[in-house]
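Field log, afternoon session.

UNIT: design team B
ACTIVITY: writing a sequence onto a fixed backbone
BACKBONE:
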């Protein structure tokens, strides 16, 4: 289970970084250029609404199954909460509070929605911390396997 946890943690970290890249695709393709990305943020939005929550749930599950420790499991839960927070607060709530639409946002909605990339950076940092913890968990297990025969040989 520890190796599966490491794989899911790596996928989560890679997806969060890819999400930043996809935001760049959307930012630099505003209005479309006839290259199949008429709505440049469509892939960014789909990844954030479908792939990231699924990976975050899998991360929590595999962290628990791998017995990664309370702190690591809570960090995985924080990742899921951040994914939900980014969806709810950074986009939906500013629009609802100000009566704006995604095409015509008020100044207040723009300032509130600007939290979105900052929370994304925090999500990158947390996912990398979980990845490092998963790697250390797998490595610690390997070190124990290697150390066992050595200790048995010394006892003989």
């Amino acid at each position: 289970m520890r190796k599966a946890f490491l794989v899911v943690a790596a996928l989560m970290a890679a997806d969060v970084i890819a999400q930043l890249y996809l935001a760049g695709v959307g930012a630099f393709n505003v209005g479309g250029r006839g290259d199949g990305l008429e709505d440049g943020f469509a892939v960014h939005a789909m990844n954030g609404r479908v792939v990231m929550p699924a990976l975050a749930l899998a991360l929590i599950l595999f962290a628990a199954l791998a017995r990664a420790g309370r702190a690591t499991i809570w960090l995985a839960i924080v990742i899921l909460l951040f994914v939900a927070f980014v969806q709810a607060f950074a986009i939906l709530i500013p629009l609802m509070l100000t009566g704006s639409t995604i095409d015509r946002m008020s100044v207040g909605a723009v300032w509130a929605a600007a939290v979105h990339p900052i929370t994304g950076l925090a999500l990158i940092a947390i996912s990398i911390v979980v990845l490092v913890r998963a790697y250390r968990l797998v490595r610690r297990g390997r070190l124990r396997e290697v150390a066992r025969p050595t200790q048995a040989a010394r006892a003989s």
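LOG NOTE: The mean pLDDT is 82.
NEXT ACTIVITY: expression trials, pending approval
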